[in-house]
Amino acid sequence: MSDKIGVYVCECGPNIADKVDIKKILAEISALNEPPEKIIIAKKHKLLCSKEGQDFLADEITKNELTHLVIAACSPRDHDITFMNVCKRTDLNPYLYKLVNIREHCAWIIPDKDEATEKAIQYIRAGISRVTYQAPLTEKELDSIPDVLVIGAGIAGIEASLSLAGENRKVYLVEKTSSIGGKVTKFEKILPHQGTDLDIIQEKIQAVQENENIEIFTETEVEKAIGFFGNFEITLKNIHNDEQKNEFKVGAIVVATGFNLFNPGKIPRYGYGKMEDIYTSMEIEESNFKTGKILLKSGNPPKSAALIHCVGREEKGYCSRVCCNYMFKIAQYLKEKIPTIKITEFYQDLCLPNKADQKFFVDTKNKGVDFIRFKDIAVKQKEKEKFIEYTKIDGKKEKISAEMIILAPAIEPADGSKGMAELLNISLDETGFFQEAHQKLNPVATSIDGVFIVGSAQNPKNIPDSMMDAQAVAGKILTQLIPGEKLIPEVIISEISEAFCTGCQTCLSVCSYGAIYFDEDKNISIVNEAICRGCGNCVASCPSGAAHSKHFTSLQIYQEVLEAIR
Amino acid sequence: MNTAENESYSPKKGAVISIKDSINKTIISFFKGALEKKIFDAVLIPVKVPAGDSYTWILIEDVSLFKDAAPIAPIMPVQGANALSSLTRKGKGNLKIAAIMRPCEIRAAIELSKLEQVHLENVFLFSFDCPGALPLSDYVQNPPKGEEVFESFFTKNKWNEESIKPICKMCDNFSLPNCDLHFGILGTEKNDLLLIPNSIKGEGVLNEMGIAFKNDLSEWKKKVDEIKKQREKTKKEAYHTIQPMVEGLDNLAQTFAKCIGCHNCMSVCPICYCRQCYFDSEVSKFTSDNYLLRAEKRGGLRFPTDIILFQSGRMSHMSLSCVSCGMCEDVCPASIPIAQIFSFIANETQKAFEYQPGRNVGEPLPLKEYKEEELQELKKLVNDSVGQE
Amino acid sequence: MDKVLKINKSMEKGIIDLLKFLLESKKVDGIFTLRKLGQNNVDYALITDVSGLNDAVPFYPLMPANAGKILSHLTQKKPIKKPIAAVVRPCELRAFVELVKREQGSLENFLFISSSCGGVFPIKSIEQKDFDKYISNYWDTVKNADISADIRSTCKACEYFTPYSADITVSLVGEKKLDKECRIFLNTDKANQAIKGFDGEISEEEFESSEISSLLEKRKTEKKKLFDEIHIEDLGLEGMVEVFGKCIGCHVCSRVCPICYCILCDFESATYDYSQSDYEKELHKKGGLRLPPDTIFFQIGRLTHMSFSCVGCGMCTDVCPVDIPVAAIFQKTGEETRQLFDYLPGKDVEETIPVMIFKEEEFTELGE
Questions:
Q1: Prior bond of A543 cis (ω within 30°)
Q2: Residue B388 has what pLDDT?
Q3: Least crowded by CB within 10 Å, which of B140, B314, B381, C112?
């Protein structure tokens, strides 16, 4: 069987033609002709990437019944796909072709024409050598999956689910607790209207439960999520019963895992957990929601209350954005339920970013709540009485007693965020929240295509902003993940030779995409062809070479290099 | 719980056992007892072959087979880790197995467990203070003489014997590897042997056997440390001699001039677990054109080709896990001091990663682990060298 | 009568000059031969530069690797494109031919130079301090058509010490005047063409001398002695265990063997990875289990797979770390089996390997 290799040198306008001696190149390459085993046809063309050039190539391939194609032109970044597509028009498999860059690597960087020509010849010879060791590869088609996995059934997750389901997408909504709705279901009132919106939330929760397109899993966690945009393989696990699993495929994943409050017990000077009647804001909201009352442990309403903002702000290194507003709300709860109560709110800074916030603040002040800005603060106890000892901005040290102390701790990402990030191959930033693709310009996407973050999973967030995220993500998914679309998974992937694999799983441990699984029966590692992205980590790590890349085999590279350094 | 995961276990007390007949026979009767009590289902132990001219690993269930067994054998024809690997590679079974091996074999087994080639569940690792092993070729030429020489290590209590393998002479890791139970032979009374638990699992075995471990270990520790210091000194000197053999391509070429490319070193190495060595694969097979070209470029090409590529390639693939057992040198037909060379290199690479093979089952292999901050000294080296330019 | 070229120089100088001539006159583009390396050692090299031949020692009594195996690697993917002269021993040449029959190489473009062979020393001999004395003793025995006491045992017992497919055969055995003159037999047209223009007298002489016949007799006696020690036909399983008991399963015998050409030996493949339940069953049956298993299985397997083509080069025994007389065992087994077919491995490239041919009527006596 003889190889018929077509070598086409592009003049690239004046880019290449002026800087290398194409005639010499063609002469030397033609001299490699060794019938009948290796037949070389070497020609030049003005501009191969033009329509005329592409037609010329297609014609040459067919006319000469070429078995391999080498093009000496520009960078593969420019036109690798162009020429692969030309091959696809003919009988020549697009992986039996090589684009040799004699523009960026020779013409554009070597001033001496002879030198540039020599290097170009060297490269082309290396390319010819390599191409003869390449194997034809076939592209496969996969159906892209329009369904979506939403992790977390808080307000952001619910809104995203409804927006998607509303456009007839199937949504798998996974929640680790036993009920859906998240933290907003625990508030007596929500901002800014403090009234009617609670009904709207309840309506949304009901809508989610009734929507046929949404399948809800409570008390469930995501065990595995591997794949890529349009084709993720998901495994869910019941948190009480390891054996109870659900497996399905989705095209996109929305992380809506929400937040937790920082534990103020970690900062001893707040006395949380040590002294009585010191509560976090969440504890107050929860007990208030249940009983409609805010009472001391003794059962009596407090006569005085100190509301302390910014608990843990310094330690965490960021402002939690929503606490000022909700602390005003809590102060207003107190005033409403206990009109004679003396309330003092302590803050380091005030965060009033939304258009209704300033008004709400003033309103709270007008209701008789004192506001004090502090530099340092501590809670002390003498006998049964509690005191807030604080240093004001002007340096003056004062103290005030309070029967009830309510803390606004920093907002943290939910438990298990680290594990979730690892599971999905996305990152956490230094604050511990999920990292967005771009802080300013792409805040709901992540570094992994198809994995999105919404709500407090990304940044401490209020309800309107969470809704915004959810709707943005739905928009992105609806426009980017189209039903009926075909995906062509990467063809240049890894393969592990069954005969040579000893099952040491070194490849598995370095795979960033979770694309390798271990077959317990055969005791070998196997590449999931639909998921492998061809990064080559496994190939590099396999000591025996059992793992190899389909289009970058050691043999191909060796032969290319051998020829180049000849 | 996995064998040898107790990084924090430090043995404080041991059990004294009187030696009856010989150390080997005493250890065997311990295992016989353990098998009878069904504490183990089988024991992996060296046994003399029927022809009497070597030893092999036998997994013993029938106690009558202990007749020719020798827990501390004069030679190491097969690395114990390889024997354990052939048994447990495909996962743990139902049998509780006791394996008695040299410290370097234990270390190799632990390394292999990190590579899924050995599974240590249901395996109880036993070791002993190892006096070294005789070179395989010396022994097979005259087995009775070999037996005699080896016996003298115990009867005359002569450690640091001249007749052991060169790699053994410089071994400072000859006592208490990460095993479950360890037989201490040094620093004890003449007719005594120490059985030292080195893990919770090991303690469990002694408890089941009804063996109390209340005896002091300080004499033993002292003697071990004494010999360890001597060996460390020998090692340093040996490495000093080896260093010039591997510095620079010219020296490497000379050192491996005798190499015939048989790859036997790789075959017997416990760490080389690849079914087909990379250097035996397609990549090492070139066309006649390639070879001819290379010959023409240099005026001549040596065959077999790419010997230094194989040697340095093997070094880079396995040196982080090299336990300096010396199997390679024992089987090299060209008498190259390959174990000493690899041990030297391994020492350097392991130092760079602060890694010791076989130290701890839970300690991941450096190349399988990603650390954001690592090898800062290299960064400094690069910066310094760039600054110089 | 055979055509012979007589060179009036010592064999050492004469052969080097011939090789230099071949290269300089461009009759060949490279010489494949043994080359000096350090004090006592040699390696095989493909030399393309004439100055490189200054280090050549073509018939040095050492075989660091079987040249047949090397030539097979060299030409396995493609025949060599340019003419090469290869100086190899008779058994190495037969090994190469045997491999060519199995598509593991090509004879194209080779000019084979061989000799009547006095054998080689075991590789470990080079460690001897007075090895050069060994070498001078060796040449004495060769000249006297005698058997050197220190060569490989398979060499002592080798009766096929003259080559079959060589283009040129250098007469060494029994050549008492080897220090002064050198007789080079030209067996083919290729050989005649090659030496054209080289200084020397061409005449007609008999290659099969009385010295060669006398050495053959001595070798046959040695062979009988060697084979009698290995009464493999009586061994049975217990006997096999005696002989191969100390085998450590390193498989280096197979690695250096020219005939073992498999990319992944079957006995190293996943087929023989047993699960613990397999081991447990065997353990309960026998009460004890040797680990790693299948040592004798490998030996028997290798005997079955390749002993038929064994050329008796002795590389296996040389490299065995536990001194098992592998070569003698395999050679004897091979010869006994081959008696059924009247076949000599590597003698003639046209002769198909009997185990690879199907004949409808064969061994009918077994059926009776």
A1: no
A2: 61
A3: B381
pLDDT tens digits for range C231-260: 777 888 888 888 999 999 999 999 999 999
Tell me which residue has tokens 């390997």.
C353
- C82 in contact with chain A, both atoms CB, cutoff 8 A: no
Contact B267 C250 (CB under 8 A): yes
Q: Report ipTM for this prediction.
A: 0.92
Say yes or no: A566 contacts chain B, CB-CB below 8 A: yes
Alpha carbons within 13 angstroms on the beta-carbon side of residue A480 total 17
- Helix, strand, coil shares of chain A, percent, nearest 5, are 35, 25, 40
The average confidence (pLDDT) of chain C is 93
Residue A2 contacts C, CB cutoff 8 Å: no
Please identify among residues 90-119 of chain A the ones whose CB lies closer than 8 Å to any CB of chain C.
Answer: none
Q: Which of B368, B369, B371 to mutate: most A Cβ within 10 Å?
A: B368
Which positions of chain A have pLDDT values less than 50?
A: none
CB-based burial, B101-123: b 16+ in 10 Å, e otherwise = bbbbbbbbbbbbbbbbbbbbebb
pLDDT at A196: 58
Q: Hey, are the CB atoms on C323 and B137 less than 8 Å from each other?
A: yes
Q: Which residues in chain C have their CB less than 8 angstroms from residue B78's CB?
A: 248-249, 292
The answer to whether C361 contacts chain A (CB < 8 Å) is: no
Residue C368's pLDDT band (boundaries 50, 70, 90)? Answer: low
Which residues of A, range 452-511, sit inside 8 Å of B by Cβ? Answer: 499-506, 509-510
pLDDT digit string, tens, across residues A60-90: 999 999 999 999 999 999 999 999 999 999 9
Task: Supply φ then ψ for residue C85, to 5 degrees.
Answer: -95, 125
Q: Quick check: A555 and B283 CB within 8 A?
A: yes
Q: Please tell me the predicted confidence (pLDDT) of residue C237.
A: 86
In B, minimum Cα distance to A498 occurs at: B275
Per the CB < 8 A criterion, the answer to whether C159 and C217 are in contact is: no
Confidence of residue B2 (pLDDT cuts 50, 70, 90): very low
Q: Is the pLDDT of residue B1 over 60?
A: no
What domains can be seen in chain A, in order of their start residue? 3-137+557-564 (3.40.50), 148-258+414-480 (3.50.50.60), 262-411 (3.50.50.60), 494-550 (3.30.70.20)
Best mutation target among C77, C273, C277, C278 (most A Cβ atoms within 10 Å) is C273
Q: Is the pLDDT of residue B389 over 70?
A: no
B298 touches chain A (CB under 8 A): no
| 8 Å CB contact of C283 and B59 | yes
Here the tokens at position A281 are 């804001």
φ/ψ (deg, to 5) at B369: -120, 140
Mean pLDDT calculated for residue range C130-144: 93
Residue B5, pLDDT above cutoff 70: no
Q: Which residues of C touch A499 (CB under 8 A)?
A: 264, 269-270
- Residues of chain A contacting B271 with CB distance shorter than 8 Å: none
Q: Tally Cβ neighbours within 10 Å of residue A138.
A: 8
Q: Which partners does chain A have (≥3 C-beta pairs < 8 Å)?
A: B, C
- The answer on pLDDT for B377 being more than 90 is no
Whole-structure pTM value:
0.81
C-alpha distance from residue A464 to each of A13, A193, A322, A412 (Å): 56, 12, 11, 19
SS3 state of residue A492:
coil
Nearest to A502 among B117, B290, B297 (CB): B117
Which positions ≥6 away from A388 have C-beta within 8 Å?
A: A306, A308, A344, A346, A377, A378, A379, A380, A399, A400, A401, A402, A405
Residue C84: closest C-alpha in chain B: B292
Convert the pLDDT of each residue in C155-196 to its tens digit.
999 999 999 999 999 999 999 999 999 999 999 999 999 999
Instruction: Specify the pLDDT at position C187.
Output: 95
